[in-house]
Amino acid sequence: MTFEREVCYLTAAELSEGYRRKRFTALEVTEALLRRIERLDGGLRAYITVTADHARAQAKAADAALSQSDPRPLLGVPLALKDLFATKGIRTTAGSKVFWDRVPTEDATCVARLRSAGTVLLGKLTMHELAYGWPTEEGQLATGRNPWDTTRIPAGSSSGCGVAVAAGLATITLGSDTGGSIRGPANNCGIVGLKPTYGRVSVRGAAPLSWSLDHMGPLCRTVEDVALTLAAIAGVDRRDPTSSTRRVPDYRAALEADVKGVRVGVPGESLYREHALDGEIRSALEAAAGVLRGSGAIVRRVEMPKPARWQAIVNVILSEAYEYHAHPRPTPAASHRRGDARALPSDRRDPHARGVLPPDHVRRISCGARRRRATAEPALDLEPRGLSLAGHAVWIQSRRSPDRDAAGRPRIRRAAAAARRRGVRAIDGLARSASAAR
What is the pLDDT of residue 124? Predict the structure, then answer.
């Protein structure tokens, strides 16, 4: 086996061990990956931008740190990013020709944390344009080819992430998931992908598709690598009002825990019946469920929501995407900040967006997040329909929803207004206290 093939398929944990045993250097590994990208990416199309010089400089810095016994677990590990994460001084296109020459002036929070972890950025990865849609065989050339079979799709929208990891063109990658964009490429390309809990990973600096449903997460070769990457990017971000203040657990230590008593849901019979699931896929799914059951997990059948109900989620995604892209941003950096839809005045909202995103509800989310920051409360004390226990918007009623009062007003609007009043009072009270202290 050649050195290139050996190191390009090592995991992050294996690379870290190899560096510390002085089997190879971060620069040697980086050069091997850059050669592989140059040779193979023309056919696979995983990358939009390759940052070779930048990667070499970071690799040299990593080797210097390793010589001082720096313990960071991702130090010198090759990284590639879905091209919607803002990278200071490096083009960030969101997969669209519209933004082909956009160069952010600061890093996304996730990117900054991975830089601090000592990773080596190889480049920015192909994605479905603006992170929306699912690539087909006819349109796959723009979003990469599946390295297992180039006539098949890698799925999307984090297609380049799946292709790069599976083909040995990156060790770890970072993607986004709104409706399956991490899980799809992980599935189709045979790697590991994780959509973290909403708020666990900061979304600041990632071009949004749907700000209330977007999740940022890793795609890697193993579960251990996912744990290492998640540990590096998780945690509260004071510049992101949607990020969670909960303590970040030790994900790597959790790998040693058993699954006894863990509840695992598997699709019920309707999935096989309604979607004509391939027999081999069903067999693999049942085998995996059997392994979990044998290890002590509680495996239960779960009937999935009917496809007609998914339209409510699509309504949210489309309206939030519209609010972000319909109005020009003053600067490239501003175009990668969250909260644009919330900042728009009511008279600039699309009528359809007003139906799916009532202004009071949007303001309530913003005020509620600021109130939690100000008072250090772990969650809102109100849970109207459409809100999770943590106070995050996960499902918003459409205009045709039957959930209305006798006067025809959406019940959620009244609850949102009440929450907004409480949030504003809390913020105003703190502001007065701060003024008095000064």
Answer: 98
